[in-house]
Amino acid sequence: MFDSLSDRLSGILDGLTGRGALSDQDVQAALREVRRALIEADVALPVVRSFTESVRGKAVGVSTLKAIKPGQQVVKIVHDELVEMLGSDAEPIDLNAAAPVVIMMVGLQGSGKTTTTGKIGLRLQKRQGRKVLMASLDTRRPAAQEQLRQIGEQVDVATLPIVDGQTPVEISARAVQAAKLGGYDVVILDTAGRTSIDAELMAEAADIKRAANPHEILLVADSLTGQDAVTLAENFDEAVGVTGIVLTRMDGDGRGGAALSMRSVTGKPVKLIGTGEKMDALEDFHPSRIADRILGMGDIVSLVERAAEQIDAEKAAAMARKMASGKFDMNDLADQLRQMQKMGGLGGIMGMMPGMGKMKDQMAAAGLDDKLFGRQIAIIQSMTKQERENPALLKHSRKKRIAAGSGTDAAQINKLLKMHKQMADMMKAMGGKKGGGKMRQMMGMLGGKMGMPGGMGGMPDLSKMDPKQIEAMAKQAQAAGLGGGMPGGLPGLPGGGAGGLPGLPGLPGKKK
Question: How many C-alpha atoms does 36 have within 13 Å on its Cβ side?
Fold first, then answer.
């Protein structure tokens, strides 16, 4: 969503950081370009004006530190102001109330309310161990209640039984009562929407609020609607008192103005963002991380969190045992590629790695896109069991058969085999007593350098750490000069690059 704005701002700020000294005219010219970029991104004009004035006041005549160039200081000022515009601190859904905590979902029809209700239900139940009940109050849209029931079955979250003929207010009262009797921690009310704001919609929402007394009222807004989403938030807040905002379709190709304007204009925090169609594609809204992404600084903390969620602990343990024995076959490589797909594919991963956003054009020209992993997995799946376990069997005639079966060619198969051999050689080097000892020593040194408990004992289990610990760990890594990347990378990925997750499969290694 922020690709266009990120490219513009990165280009403007790169021009500043490349200079040894900055004049007031340099800063003023850069800020004019920043202002134009924000307006083109559909950011509300009052927000643009406030942002640029604040940056100008801090950047003009900025005191120069010996170790930092003036341009770099201006970049930091712009970053800090972006964070301030987005809301400074992340604000998760507030569940600090007597059970059952009532969450009321409001918004226009087509914004993704029902799907987001299911996503939040799954998130609260899976991540926070809450017992959740979902109820559809939409009696107007055909099959709306049935849609939520099916979503509930899909994500294994309970839904209120459908009773024909009840009004939305009656359903809300029944949902709260059922939640109390059933011992539920949270009840989520999915209210009806309209194609546009009208008095009847607002009156109904106000009646439901009085009947259910919700602790949170979340407005679900489509981020692709731009400034209309901001107007929508103001109208709903005036009618029912919104406590937070969920922005959907943040993975789309919109200009991002709604996300940047929402907090400043409405004063309401953006709590969650929808990043895809899948039911687990929902993220906390962290202003500092979003600002990092916009300015091309990456978002290594979110990447590590995503890895901790997606990586199968049992498979990772099995992989570690294989590493210790020095074995690594094509089945193992396929498992690694599937895990990368789960984490958002090449585009999703690269977008979160510091500095990699600027390489999109080069990557596209080299054929390194989100289809890469799919092609490589197709090649492996076209092999026989014996070939996957022993790639040395692959001679010309076998490669010809595999190419026909996977829709690729011999050159792509040879690239995959070369990548596998490099990874297998690394595993072999790490295996055994000498290699294993060296690897443990290396990991322990990294852990000690980052100030982690255990010192030489190695790296902690990321899946058992909370986000604050992971964020602190990433900051320690940056302070230790580790390029912002998490040491060790993802399981099975060989080292070879600085900054971010090194040695992604299929990517050319960094030239020394």
Answer: 8
